[in-house]
Amino acid sequence: MGLLDDIDEVLIPEATLHARIRELGAQISSDYEGKDPLLIGILTGAVLFIADLLRQITIPAHLDFMAISSYGSATESSGVVRILKDLNQTIEGRHVLVVDDIVDTGLTMDYLLETLKARYPASLRVCALLDKASRRKRHVPIHYRGFEIPDKFVVGYGLDYGGTYRNLPFICVLKPEVYR
Ligand code: IMP
Questions:
Q1: Predicted confidence band of residue 12 (pLDDT cuts 50, 70, 90)
Q2: How many domains does the chain fold into?
Q3: Is residue 159 part of a domain?
Q4: Which long-range contacts (CB under 8 A, 24 or more apart) does 25-33 make?
Q5: Alpha carbon of 100 to ligand 1 centroid (Å)
Q6: How far is the CA of 103 from the centre of ligand 1 (A)?
Q7: Per-residue pLDDT reduced to its tens digit, 99-126
Q8: Which atom of ligand 1 approaches the CA of 101 most closely?
Q9: Structural domain of residue 61, as residue ranges?
Q10: What residues are in contact with ligand 1 under a 6 Å CB criterion?
Q11: Which atom of ligand 1 is nearest to the CA of 45?
Q12: Does the pTM exceed 0.90?
Protein backbone atom coordinates (compact mmCIF):
# COMPACT_ATOMS: atom_id res chain seq x y z
CA MET A 1 0.00 0.00 0.00
CA GLY A 2 1.35 3.42 -0.96
CA LEU A 3 0.55 6.86 0.43
CA LEU A 4 -1.90 7.50 -2.40
CA ASP A 5 -4.13 4.64 -1.21
CA ASP A 6 -4.87 6.58 2.01
CA ILE A 7 -6.26 9.64 0.21
CA ASP A 8 -9.98 10.33 0.22
CA GLU A 9 -10.03 13.64 -1.67
CA VAL A 10 -7.55 16.16 -3.09
CA LEU A 11 -8.63 19.61 -1.86
CA ILE A 12 -5.94 21.73 -3.55
CA PRO A 13 -4.04 20.29 -6.53
CA GLU A 14 -0.36 21.00 -7.06
CA ALA A 15 -0.84 23.47 -9.95
CA THR A 16 -3.38 25.49 -7.93
CA LEU A 17 -0.96 25.70 -4.99
CA HIS A 18 1.85 26.95 -7.18
CA ALA A 19 -0.29 29.50 -9.01
CA ARG A 20 -1.45 30.99 -5.69
CA ILE A 21 2.08 30.99 -4.25
CA ARG A 22 3.27 32.95 -7.30
CA GLU A 23 0.60 35.57 -6.54
CA LEU A 24 1.56 35.72 -2.87
CA GLY A 25 5.24 36.11 -3.81
CA ALA A 26 4.44 38.99 -6.17
CA GLN A 27 2.31 40.74 -3.52
CA ILE A 28 4.98 40.33 -0.83
CA SER A 29 7.71 41.54 -3.22
CA SER A 30 5.73 44.68 -3.95
CA ASP A 31 4.71 45.37 -0.31
CA TYR A 32 8.22 44.89 1.12
CA GLU A 33 10.21 46.70 -1.58
CA GLY A 34 13.22 48.37 0.09
CA LYS A 35 12.41 46.79 3.49
CA ASP A 36 14.69 43.74 3.42
CA PRO A 37 12.07 41.51 5.13
CA LEU A 38 12.91 38.59 7.39
CA LEU A 39 10.76 35.56 6.63
CA ILE A 40 10.35 33.23 9.59
CA GLY A 41 9.28 29.71 8.70
CA ILE A 42 7.60 27.64 11.40
CA LEU A 43 9.05 24.17 11.48
CA THR A 44 8.22 21.63 10.33
CA GLY A 45 4.97 22.07 8.42
CA ALA A 46 5.86 25.33 6.64
CA VAL A 47 9.12 24.10 5.11
CA LEU A 48 7.75 23.17 1.68
CA PHE A 49 5.60 26.29 1.49
CA ILE A 50 8.34 28.75 2.50
CA ALA A 51 10.83 27.15 0.12
CA ASP A 52 8.46 27.69 -2.81
CA LEU A 53 7.30 31.12 -1.59
CA LEU A 54 10.84 32.43 -1.19
CA ARG A 55 11.62 31.50 -4.80
CA GLN A 56 8.72 33.71 -5.93
CA ILE A 57 10.01 36.73 -4.01
CA THR A 58 12.00 39.04 -6.26
CA ILE A 59 13.43 41.48 -3.68
CA PRO A 60 16.24 40.89 -1.13
CA ALA A 61 14.80 38.81 1.72
CA HIS A 62 16.22 36.90 4.69
CA LEU A 63 15.23 33.51 6.03
CA ASP A 64 15.13 32.09 9.54
CA PHE A 65 13.20 29.33 11.30
CA MET A 66 11.51 28.66 14.62
CA ALA A 67 10.32 25.34 15.93
CA ILE A 68 7.48 25.28 18.40
CA SER A 69 5.63 22.45 20.02
CA SER A 70 1.96 22.75 20.58
CA TYR A 71 0.64 20.38 23.20
CA GLY A 72 -2.53 18.51 22.36
CA SER A 73 -3.73 15.47 20.49
CA ALA A 74 -2.65 14.57 16.94
CA THR A 75 -5.41 16.68 15.41
CA GLU A 76 -6.14 19.38 18.06
CA SER A 77 -3.81 21.99 19.51
CA SER A 78 -4.19 23.17 23.10
CA GLY A 79 -2.69 26.64 22.89
CA VAL A 80 0.08 25.70 25.28
CA VAL A 81 3.15 26.39 23.21
CA ARG A 82 6.86 25.86 23.84
CA ILE A 83 9.74 27.19 21.74
CA LEU A 84 11.94 24.24 20.75
CA LYS A 85 14.25 26.21 18.43
CA ASP A 86 14.50 29.96 18.54
CA LEU A 87 15.63 32.36 15.81
CA ASN A 88 19.31 32.69 14.95
CA GLN A 89 19.08 36.48 15.02
CA THR A 90 17.46 39.42 16.80
CA ILE A 91 14.43 40.97 15.10
CA GLU A 92 14.44 44.42 16.70
CA GLY A 93 13.76 46.99 13.97
CA ARG A 94 13.27 44.28 11.30
CA HIS A 95 10.25 43.79 9.04
CA VAL A 96 9.17 40.31 10.05
CA LEU A 97 6.85 38.01 8.09
CA VAL A 98 5.86 34.81 9.87
CA VAL A 99 5.17 32.02 7.37
CA ASP A 100 3.12 29.03 8.50
CA ASP A 101 1.29 26.17 6.85
CA ILE A 102 -2.11 26.56 8.51
CA VAL A 103 -3.95 28.68 11.04
CA ASP A 104 -6.60 26.50 12.65
CA THR A 105 -7.81 27.60 16.12
CA GLY A 106 -5.23 30.41 16.01
CA LEU A 107 -3.91 29.52 19.48
CA THR A 108 -0.40 28.72 18.24
CA MET A 109 -0.05 31.83 16.05
CA ASP A 110 -1.54 34.09 18.73
CA TYR A 111 1.09 32.94 21.21
CA LEU A 112 3.86 33.25 18.65
CA LEU A 113 2.88 36.78 17.65
CA GLU A 114 2.82 37.91 21.28
CA THR A 115 6.29 36.43 21.77
CA LEU A 116 7.70 38.13 18.67
CA LYS A 117 6.01 41.49 19.38
CA ALA A 118 7.89 41.66 22.68
CA ARG A 119 11.13 41.76 20.64
CA TYR A 120 10.22 45.07 18.95
CA PRO A 121 10.18 44.27 15.21
CA ALA A 122 9.56 47.27 12.91
CA SER A 123 6.55 45.38 11.57
CA LEU A 124 5.04 41.95 12.06
CA ARG A 125 2.74 40.17 9.62
CA VAL A 126 1.49 36.64 9.01
CA CYS A 127 1.48 34.65 5.79
CA ALA A 128 -0.48 31.39 6.06
CA LEU A 129 -0.99 28.96 3.21
CA LEU A 130 -4.23 27.62 4.68
CA ASP A 131 -6.86 29.24 6.86
CA LYS A 132 -9.46 27.14 8.67
CA ALA A 133 -11.39 30.27 9.67
CA SER A 134 -14.46 28.43 10.97
CA ARG A 135 -12.37 26.89 13.77
CA ARG A 136 -10.87 30.13 15.09
CA LYS A 137 -10.75 30.59 18.87
CA ARG A 138 -8.33 33.55 18.87
CA HIS A 139 -8.33 36.38 16.36
CA VAL A 140 -5.18 36.24 14.23
CA PRO A 141 -4.52 38.88 11.57
CA ILE A 142 -3.53 37.01 8.39
CA HIS A 143 -2.14 39.52 5.90
CA TYR A 144 -1.29 36.97 3.22
CA ARG A 145 -3.59 33.98 2.92
CA GLY A 146 -3.26 31.19 0.39
CA PHE A 147 -6.62 29.46 0.71
CA GLU A 148 -9.52 29.30 3.12
CA ILE A 149 -10.44 25.66 3.66
CA PRO A 150 -13.38 23.89 5.34
CA ASP A 151 -13.17 22.29 8.78
CA LYS A 152 -11.39 19.13 7.68
CA PHE A 153 -8.05 17.73 8.85
CA VAL A 154 -5.76 18.02 5.85
CA VAL A 155 -2.31 16.65 5.02
CA GLY A 156 0.29 17.02 2.28
CA TYR A 157 2.61 19.79 1.09
CA GLY A 158 4.33 19.86 4.49
CA LEU A 159 1.32 19.06 6.66
CA ASP A 160 1.39 15.74 8.48
CA TYR A 161 -0.69 13.26 10.36
CA GLY A 162 1.50 11.53 12.94
CA GLY A 163 4.59 12.64 11.03
CA THR A 164 3.52 11.03 7.74
CA TYR A 165 2.17 12.47 4.45
CA ARG A 166 4.31 15.66 4.38
CA ASN A 167 5.80 14.69 1.02
CA LEU A 168 2.51 14.59 -0.88
CA PRO A 169 2.74 17.50 -3.37
CA PHE A 170 -0.92 18.58 -2.90
CA ILE A 171 -3.34 19.27 -0.02
CA CYS A 172 -5.74 16.41 0.65
CA VAL A 173 -8.03 14.69 3.13
CA LEU A 174 -7.33 11.14 4.22
CA LYS A 175 -9.82 8.29 4.31
CA PRO A 176 -11.71 8.22 7.64
CA GLU A 177 -10.26 4.82 8.57
CA VAL A 178 -6.72 6.27 8.49
CA TYR A 179 -7.53 8.72 11.32
CA ARG A 180 -8.91 6.01 13.57
P1 IMP B 1 -3.80 26.04 15.83
O2 IMP B 1 -3.01 26.43 17.05
O3 IMP B 1 -5.06 25.30 16.20
O4 IMP B 1 -4.09 27.21 14.91
O5 IMP B 1 -2.99 24.96 15.04
C6 IMP B 1 -1.84 25.25 14.40
C7 IMP B 1 -1.05 24.01 14.07
O8 IMP B 1 -1.79 22.79 14.19
C9 IMP B 1 -0.60 24.08 12.63
O10 IMP B 1 0.61 24.81 12.49
C11 IMP B 1 -0.46 22.62 12.28
O12 IMP B 1 0.80 22.16 12.69
C13 IMP B 1 -1.51 21.93 13.12
N14 IMP B 1 -2.74 21.71 12.31
C15 IMP B 1 -3.93 22.35 12.43
N16 IMP B 1 -4.82 21.89 11.54
C17 IMP B 1 -4.17 20.95 10.81
C18 IMP B 1 -4.57 20.11 9.70
O19 IMP B 1 -5.70 20.14 9.16
N20 IMP B 1 -3.61 19.26 9.25
C21 IMP B 1 -2.36 19.18 9.77
N22 IMP B 1 -1.95 19.96 10.79
C23 IMP B 1 -2.85 20.83 11.30
A1: very high
A2: 1
A3: no
A4: 25/53, 25/55, 25/56, 25/57, 25/58, 26/56, 26/58, 27/144, 28/53, 28/57, 28/97, 28/127, 28/144, 29/56, 29/57, 29/58, 29/59, 32/59, 32/61, 32/95, 32/97, 33/59
A5: 9
A6: 6
A7: 999 999 999 999 999 999 999 999 999 9
A8: 10
A9: 20-71+78-151
A10: 45, 70, 77, 100-109, 153-155, 159
A11: 12
A12: yes
